[in-house]
Amino acid sequence: MSTGSKAGLDALLTPEESVLLLIDHQPFQFANLNSHEPTMVVNNVIGLAKAAKVFDVPTILTTVLEERGGLLIQGLQDVFPEQKPINRTFINTWQDARVVDAVKATGRRKLIIAGLWTEICVAMPALQAAGEGFEVFAVTDASGGVSKEAHDMAVGRMVQAGVVPITWMVVLGEWQRDWTREETVPGVAEVQMQHAGATGVAFAWEMQLLAGHARSGL
C-alpha cells in the first residue's frame, strides 16, 4: 500500500518532496488513446512538465521501444531538451532498474506519475511503487487509456492500492500553495496562460487590463 497521510496538511504535495515520472507520451500510444481527447492530454502533460520545471521538481522521462513506437512528443521533449528519455523494453516501467534508480536517487518519496496508457503504463508502476513504500499520485488528465472504461477501471484499481488520483492543475496549486511565494509566481502565471484553458485566457486578459491602467495612470 502507498504510505503517507491521506488527510491533513501532510497529504498535500510540496515541491521539495515530489518527483515526477512521465511515461510513454509517444505517437504509437496516442494512436489508440480513446478515453480523452488526445490534444487535451498533450496540453496537460506539457503543462505539468513545465510546472515541474518552475518548481525544480526532478522529472524523469521514459519511452518504450521508441524505435518502433516513436520518440517522445516534441512539446514535452522541448521542456527538458537536455534530457534523453530512458528507452525501455519492460512494459512495467518500475521493472527497469534505470528508472527506479533515477527516482530513488532524488531521495523523494512522493512519486507523481502520468503516462499512456493509464491501465498499463501508469497502473503497473504505480501499483508496484506503492507496494514498495512510495506515496504515489496518478495524474489522470495527463494520462489516458484505450477506452474510457479502461482508464476508469485503472484509476479505481490504483485507488484500492492507496494511489491518489489527481489532476495537473491541482498538482500546480499544491506546489504553489501560497501566492506570497513570489519567486515562482511568474512561472506559474506563464504555465497557466499557455495551458490552463479559460483560466489562462482570463488571466492574460486581466494582465492586459492592469497594463492598460498602468499606462493611463489609473
Automatic annotation (TrEMBL):
Protein name: Hydrolase
Membrane-spanning segments: none
Keywords: Hydrolase
Residue span(s) of domain Isochorismatase-like: 18-168
Signal sequence, renumbered to the chain: none
Cross-referenced Gene3D superfamilies: Isochorismatase-like
GO MF terms, alphabetically ordered: hydrolase activity
Originating species: Micromonospora sonchi
UniProt xrefs under InterPro entries: Hydrolase_YcaC-like, Isochorismatase-like_dom, Isochorismatase-like_sf
